[in-house]
Design a protein that fits this description.
Layout lengths: L1 E6 L3 E7 L5 E8 L5 H12 L7 E5 L2 E2 L6 E2 L11 H9 L3 E5 H11 L8 E7 L3 E7 L2 E2 L25 H4 L17 H4 L1 H10 L7 H9 L3 H25 L4 E4 L6 H12 L11 E3 L6 H7 L5 H4 L1
Helix pairs in contact: 1-2, 3-10, 7-8, 8-9
Length: about 300
């Protein structure tokens, strides 16, 4: 059994996880955001009843594989902190840490909708967009600990030559991304970005839920917004599939609750990839709120070793 924590900007979700994915002793505590000793103390207290078990963590951030340094913009107290080393020193137990989107993909590969697939790219469609890449049951390590961040690269780019004003007004703007780059897919893709895109496309201020509901009832303006969204998202994700060769794409996050949106994005992707498929690539994830904990439990495992 493994102690697992799924740590976000609001709460630490904690449980003892069995090899078959069952959870016990699950509880949630607020995440201390501005006090590193309090943050470490919360985890030490959660783990205390089980002194001999390892601790695996899914976190809304990235651990550098070379230094162990954490980058987590929404949890400032651990920013630039070698968290695993601190926790090991305080508890004497083995500690593993991975990005929460990577853990989501890993969980779906071991226990969820992607079980049986060697090559899995998991997609989060939430407030922003994220992803995780799993090969043979392991997270694929990336430069500086970053893998699967398909939302952060400039896909909305300025034209190579000046356009007249009328043509320029038809181009999607180069919105500034939170990562510091302009034109990232994340600037038009997540729930808040979809709302901004809808305004630019001529719509009125609405929530992403309202926009999607209007789209599904045939609203013309919402249809224009979603046509733009699907064009960019389909192209971006098709590029990912052509590079990774993933055979399934589990989809989670708030926007994935709109089944028609996932189906439409799947069609947009499959129309743009090099390989013809007989069925959908994108499938709604199966594990819900358990994915972070279950993925953390799988850190260090290998599907091939279990077959």
């Amino acid at each position: 059994m493994i102690l697992c924590a799924d740590i976000g900007g609001s709460f630490i979700d904690f449980a003892v996880v069995h090899p078959d994915g069952r959870t016990e002793h699950r509880r949630s505590v607020p995440t201390p955001l501005d006090n590193a000793p309090a943050f470490i103390g919360a985890l030490v207290a959660l783990c205390a009843p089980w002194p001999d078990m390892p601790l695996h963590i899914a976190i809304a951030g990235v651990e550098c594989p070379d230094t162990g340094i954490i980058r987590a913009a929404n949890i400032p107290c651990v920013q630039s902190l070698p968290l695993a080393a601190h926790l090991h020193r305080e508890t004497g137990r083995a500690v593993r840490i991975a990005n929460d989107a990577d853990c989501f993909a890993l969980a779906e590969a071991h226990f969820g909708i992607a079980r049986g697939h060697r090559n899995v790219f998991g997609v989060i469609l939430g407030t922003g967009i994220g992803g995780g890449f799993v090969l043979d049951g392991r997270i694929v390590p990336g430069l500086g600990g970053v893998t699967g961040e398909w939302g952060h690269a400039p896909v909305v780019i300025p034209p190579p030559a000046p356009l007249d004003q009328e043509a320029a007004e038809t181009l999607v703007p180069l919105f500034r991304c939170g990562c510091g780059i302009s034109g990232c897919l994340d600037t038009i893709a997540g729930a808040r970005a979809l709302e901004r895109l809808h305004l630019w496309a001529g719509g009125t201020p609405q929530t992403s839920r309202a926009i999607l509901e209007a789209w599904q009832t045939g609203d013309r303006q919402a249809g224009r917004t979603l046509d733009i969204w699907l064009s960019y998202m389909g192209a971006g994700l098709a590029h990912v599939i052509n590079v990774t060769g993933s055979t399934i794409v589990p989809v989670a996050g708030g926007l994935s609750n709109a089944h028609a949106l996932v189906d439409a994005l799947d069609e947009a992707v499959r129309a743009r990839i090099l390989t013809t498929t007989s069925g959908p690539l994108l499938k709604r994830a199966a594990l819900g709120a358990d994915a972070g904990l279950l993925g953390a439990a799988c850190l260090g495992l290998d599907i091939r070793a279990q077959e």
